[in-house]
Design brief:
Blueprint lengths: L1 H15 L11 E11 L3 E2 L2 E3 L2 E3 L3 E4 L2 E11 L4 E8 L2 E8 L1 H6 L4 E8 L2 E6 L8 E19 L1 H5 L3 E5 L2 E13 L4 E10 L2 E8 L2 E8 L3 E10 L1
Antiparallel strand pairs: 1-6, 1-17, 2-16, 3-4, 3-16, 5-8, 6-7, 7-10, 8-9, 9-11, 10-11, 11-13, 12-15, 13-14, 14-17, 15-16
Length: about 230
């Protein structure tokens, strides 16, 4: 009986031990996982040679990559976090009868982007809790690069596809669940304000369209506290 009580006590301590303290000032947290950028885009009418084409719009698809977070706890409840990721690639589509008469598939091309985001995080719960929800607010800088046109767009005399880089605000909610003193499960959702102007050259003149990408960004993964 005494042996059984000792075993139960040891098991209880083993389960409770990981939750002794979630975060403390000075902790460094590294998280990695799958991250998806899902554009919630809206665009102006596409302009060709300075004339708007009513109803002609642009759109982007979603993409999933490896996401990385690096955080430093300034206090037990406040941290600074940097979001990084491997480059996202999005197909750029166009829709509307005028544009699609030139590019029947609606596939204009593809672009890559990186959205590094620096945020301040707030953890409202006591650091003895294994479950640690948090909210964050920060600033994003999205870099667009490797813009390439589809074969149909090139055949229609499109060239020089470019997207302007973007500054914007970013907000997030997330949660960590401590599995041990150092290892955690993480899930997070962000909304990022991304606005860009896309341009391309054609035989009819320069094509321009303003796009509010404004993606929802989802990430799930594991983290480690140093």
């Amino acid at each position: 009986m005494r042996t059984t009580l000792l075993a139960v006590s040891a098991l209880t301590l083993a389960i409770a031990a990981p939750f002794a303290a979630a975060y403390q000032a000075g902790d460094i947290i590294v998280r990695a996982g799958a991250i998806t950028v899902d554009p919630n885009e809206s665009s102006s009418d596409i302009s060709v040679g300075g004339s708007n084409l009513n109803g002609e719009k642009a759109n982007l698809d979603s993409d999933t990559q490896l996401g990385l977070n690096f955080a430093y706890m300034v206090t037990d409840n406040v941290g600074i976090e940097l979001l990084a990721a491997t480059p996202f690639e999005h197909n750029v589509g166009v829709k509307g009868s005028t544009v699609n008469s030139l590019v029947p598939s609606g596939d204009l091309g593809s672009i890559k982007q990186l959205p590094p985001t620096l945020s301040a995080l707030y953890y409202p719960l006591d650091n003895n809790s294994a479950f640690q929800p948090y909210v964050g607010l920060g600033i994003n800088y999205t870099v667009f690069f490797d813009e390439s046109l589809s074969s149909e767009a090139r055949a229609a005399s499109f060239s020089n596809l470019e997207l302007e880089n973007s500054w914007g605000l970013a907000a997030q909610v997330g949660m960590d669940y401590m599995l041990t003193d150092n290892v955690m499960l993480n899930a997070q959702v962000r909304y990022i304000d991304i606005e860009t102007e896309a341009t391309a050259d054609t035989a009819l003149g320069k094509v321009k369209v303003d796009v509010d990408v404004d993606p929802w960004v989802y990430m799930v993964g594991l983290g480690y506290k140093f």
